[in-house]
Amino acid sequence: MELDETDREILRILQSDARTPFSEIARRIDMSSATVHDRVGRMEDAGVIEGYHAKIDPRSVGLGTSAFVGLRIEQGREDDALDRLREIEGVQEIHLTTGEWDVMLRLTVEDTDALREVMFEEVSRIKGFSRSQTMVVLATDLEEAALSI
Amino acid sequence: MELDETDREILRILQSDARTPFSEIARRIDMSSATVHDRVGRMEDAGVIEGYHAKIDPRSVGLGTSAFVGLRIEQGREDDALDRLREIEGVQEIHLTTGEWDVMLRLTVEDTDALREVMFEEVSRIKGFSRSQTMVVLATDLEEAALSI
DNA sequence: CATGAAAGAATGAGCAG
DNA sequence: CTGCTCATTCTTTCATG
To answer: What domains can be seen in chain A, in order of their start residue?
Structure first.
């Protein structure tokens, strides 16, 4: 889908506050709210807008510990191993990467004890990984939700 | 702030669709929309809800390449180096971690050429980093926006 | 936590350039 | 083809019990 500057402006607004009323967006971009409605609908249908999500402070809901986990995967076992990773609670992201690791996980769990449990009782038990490294997040200095559109 | 089961239910709904009308949330949790309004307001004020963001497909806006970058930082140079990282366009996340790397970046850029440019023209020029490794994301198998509340 | 009322917003049809 | 107007319905918001 082709996006013009008006679409991009709408995306910027919805990225920074997804609950902005269409009428308010319309005011800011100087168009009618019906037009905003149309354009947003088209971008949703085209998959440009994948969804709208509240960002919750993890600590407030008892998820105070986060980590990156690099994994080396044995040839031929990729699919099954990934399927099993996907089912582990706390596994927030799974990326396939070049470089030192084949798979990079992002974990979000209660505390370091829960992290140990996920790693030793769940991840380590999956066949197909030959090596792993856990990088515990000590602090997050920047976490920008918005893309530079 | 103390969250009860009703608050958590509201959070789950807003995590999965931040544009769900309060009136609809009210129907689902069997309370009045005024109560939902109150509770959401209190969670916003308390910082439990940090914001509402549209999730945009990066490819649709020409940001097709993503990478993790591990960095080793020299003692005493932390603050200045982080300040300069924060200003680089394409740096989406900055985490301080234990393990092989002191800093883990998440980059989102146009293509591999833009990635090379960010790494060689921007990141590499910052004093204070002794070593780096770039892990290009080949595919993202799972990217769960919602926490398991 | 609910009710009720006023203001505001979403939504879709039909129309104009 | 794109955006607007207009009318209906639904939602937000807040004062009050």
So the answer is: 5-45 (1.10.10.10), 58-136 (3.30.70.920)
